[in-house]
TrEMBL record:
Annotated site location: Discriminates between blocked and unblocked aminoacyl-tRNA: N13
Tree of life domain: Bacteria
Alphabetical keyword list: Cytoplasm, Hydrolase, RNA-binding, tRNA-binding
Gene that specifies this protein: pth
GO cellular component: cytoplasm
Quaternary structure note: Monomer.
Reactions accelerated catalytically: an N-acyl-L-alpha-aminoacyl-tRNA + H2O = an N-acyl-L-amino acid + a tRNA + H(+)
Protein name per Swiss-Prot or TrEMBL: Peptidyl-tRNA hydrolase
EC category: hydrolase
Source taxonomy: Bacteria, Bacillati, Actinomycetota, Actinomycetes, Micrococcales
Length: 206
């Protein structure tokens, strides 16, 4: 589990007007991981031909290996593009740091999971998530890890796109720090002990 770095990406939209949206919960998780490891995000082109920065990036060691040793080296990244064109920065960073798809972890909001639940999977469909769809296209494979952060379903007939671009309700906001913390724990477990260990913990009730 220690050979080579991992790339952990938090999906979202850039700018303060989106920062508290459900769609940006992935970036909230990355901010928590940076806080835990004491690192600061800086602009990085990720090896793109353009000099314009495409992601905010920080490098750290994450989690604890069995036996207590520090966890693997990780590249934490928040694309600075809009959600539906996240794939380019993700693929560029994967090439730049020589990270294979199976060591790419995408942290994202998930409508098909109840609010405040966290689920994990590798591969599979994108469930209509434009950030994942573009990532799959750019990487040329679906075989990357997803840390799926439940934001619930829109009420009534509200459009899903409108729902994810709204902030959490006042009632939900009380649980958001807990949710972000749980998702950050899940990322740490994936990179330090593997996807199966993380699934065992987060998919088992009780």
């Amino acid at each position: 589990m220690t050979a080579g770095p991992w790339l952990v990406v938090g999906l979202g939209n850039p700018g303060p007007q989106y920062a508290g949206n459900r769609h940006n919960v992935g970036q909230m998780v990355l901010d928590e991981l940076a806080r835990r490891t004491g690192v600061t995000f800086g602009a990085r082109g990720g090896g793109l031909l353009s000099k314009r920065p495409q992601a905010a990036v920080a490098e750290a060691r994450l989690g604890v290996l069995p036996g207590g040793a520090p966890g693997p080296r990780v590249v934490l990244a928040k694309p600075t593009t809009y959600m539906n064109v996240s794939g380019g920065p993700v693929a560029a960073l994967a090439r730049y740091y020589d990270v294979p798809a199976e060591r790419v972890v995408m942290v994202h909001d998930e409508l098909d999971i109840p609010f405040a639940d966290v689920r994990l999977k590798k591969g599979g469909g994108e469930g209509g998530h434009n950030g994942l769809r573009d990532t799959t296209k750019a990487l040329g494979t679906k075989d990357y890890v997803r840390v799926r952060v439940g934001v619930g379903r829109p009420p009534g007939r509200m459009d899903a796109a409108d729902f994810v671009l709204r902030n959490f309700t006042a009632a939900e906001a009380k649980d958001v720090p807990w949710l972000v913390d749980a998702a950050a724990d899940a990322v740490e477990l994936v990179v330090a002990q593997g996807l199966e260990a993380a699934q065992l913990r987060y998919h088992t009730k009780g």
